[in-house]
Every structure is written in C-alpha cells, then in structure tokens.
Specification:
Alpha-lytic protease prodomain-like; four-stranded antiparallel sheet; Alpha-Beta Plaits; 264 residues
C-alpha cells in the first residue's frame, strides 16, 4: 500500500472534496482518500503507482502539490466510515427539516432573514447529500445532481435578492420579530446539535471537519437573525431583517457556485 500526500491550497470546503472525489472516482489503484481541511492536505492510499492521479489533480487547478509518497499499512477503519455515514445522515436530515421550517415560517412572518437562512440550510443539506451519494455510483449521475442543485439554489437566491430589493424600495409590513427570534433560536439549537454530532466522529476528513466549520458559521447566522428580530422590535423598522437577509442570500449564491463547480 502506498500513501501519497498532496497539498491543495484552494481546498477549504466540502465542494472541493466532492470535486476531487468525483474526478478520482474509477481509478482502480486508489483504495481510500483522506482529507485534512485545516492543513489543506489530501492523502491518497493506493495499491500501485499511477501518474494519472497527480495529472488529474493538477487539471482541477486547485493549487495541488505532491509532498511525499511512502509505503504504509494505514487505512481508515470500516467502523469509522460507518459512524461518519450515520452522523452525516443525521445532520442532513436536521438541515433539511429546518430548511422547511424556516422557509415556511419566513413567508408567514414576512421575514427575509428566515427565508435566506432556510436556503443556507438547504445548501448545507445538498452538500451533505452529495457527500453521502452512493459510493461507486456513476460519476456522470453525481455531476448531474450537483449541477441541478447548484442552478436550483442560484434561482432561489436570485429570487430572494430581487425580493429584498423590492422590499427595500417599497412599503412592507414589519416582519413578526417573535417568529424570527423563536424559529432562529430553534435553528440555533439544531445547529448546535449538529455540531455535537459531528464532533463525535473525531474525524480529520473534510466532509466531517468542514461540516463542523459550516455548522459553526450557521450558528453565527442564526444569531444574526435573532439580533435582526430584536432590532426590528426596537427600531420598528424592516431594514435590519432585509440587511441580514441580503447578506445570507449572498452566502447562498457563493455556496451554489461551489456546488456548480462539482458538475463541470
């Protein structure tokens, strides 16, 4: 068994991990891929030398540099993989459930902050779903799912941004700050639960460590919507909600563009 370590300077989220996985899928010499997000490292465990691995990684233009190749018996245990799969499934379900809760509550309460946060939850659920897509499935099918998901998010985010602009310049009833605060607080608790589940894996792989970072960012977004709700109450103004909504929609667009990159 060989172990080749690559430094990938532009690998900082699950989108890059999925991109690499799909590009390397089908190379029979590869036994396992291990990702370290914090150090931006990819470790390839392979049964034999294959120069195509390095060429494919270079073609992705993610700033990949081969650091070393050594012989090893190290491999991720099967039980660890199963644990990661169970935890990611739980996090995916939580994210998708709160996407539905927040988008419905957002429209009912007239809060663009909640609607935008719901799309951020959907973005996370899509990334987790792609990571959990059946191992060994057709690469073309994975790419098609990524492309459709990315365009769908871009469409929703575009509609959301247009709606924020319309509400900025038009007359709108104040959003219901009580729904904003309560639902965002529940979403915050859900994200904290996801963070707890992800930390249980103690994994160094990107789809676990990046998920923890993404979930930590979601907690900050939830707190932002709560603050916006309080400001709506104090100022009796729609603008705090619209400003937070616009900022989160921009984050959703950024996530959608990363997902679209998977489909190339």
């Amino acid at each position: 068994m060989y172990k080749t370590v690559f430094y990938v300077s532009k690998m900082d989220c699950p989108s890059e991990e999925n991109l690499i996985r799909m590009k390397l899928d089908g190379i029979k010499e590869i036994e396992h891929l291990d990702f370290d997000l914090e150090r931006r490292q990819l470790v390839v465990f392979h049964l034999a030398q294959n120069p195509n691995i390095e060429l494919i990684l270079a073609d992705l233009q993610l700033g990949t540099t081969r650091m070393e190749t050594t012989e090893t018996e190290e491999i991720l245990a099967k039980d660890d993989k199963m644990l990661q799969t169970r935890l990611l499934r739980a996090v995916l379900l939580i994210n998708f459930a709160f996407f539905l809760i927040e988008i419905i509550s957002g429209f009912l309460s007239n809060s663009m902050g909640l609607v935008a946060d719901s799309l951020d939850m959907l973005a996370d659920a899509i990334v987790y779903g792609l990571s959990l897509w059946a191992v060994g499935g057709a690469v073309s099918r994975k790419k098609n799912v990524a492309t459709l998901s990315g365009y769908f998010q871009l469409l929703l985010a575009g509609i959301g941004i247009a709606e924020v602009i319309r509400r900025f310049i038009g007359f709108e009833n104040l959003p219901d700050f009580r729904v904003m605060v309560v639902v965002s607080f529940l979403a915050l608790l859900a994200n904290l639960a996801c963070l707890y589940l992800l930390q249980k894996s103690k994994s160094r792989e990107a789809h676990m460590k990046a998920s923890m970072i993404f979930t930590s960012n979601d907690v900050i977004i939830n707190a932002g919507v709560i603050v916006a709700g309080v400001l709506v109450l104090v100022t009796r103004s729609k603008y705090p909600d619209l400003i937070v909504g616009a900022l989160v929609f921009i984050l959703v667009v950024r996530g959608a563009l990363r997902i679209l990159k998977l489909g190339k």
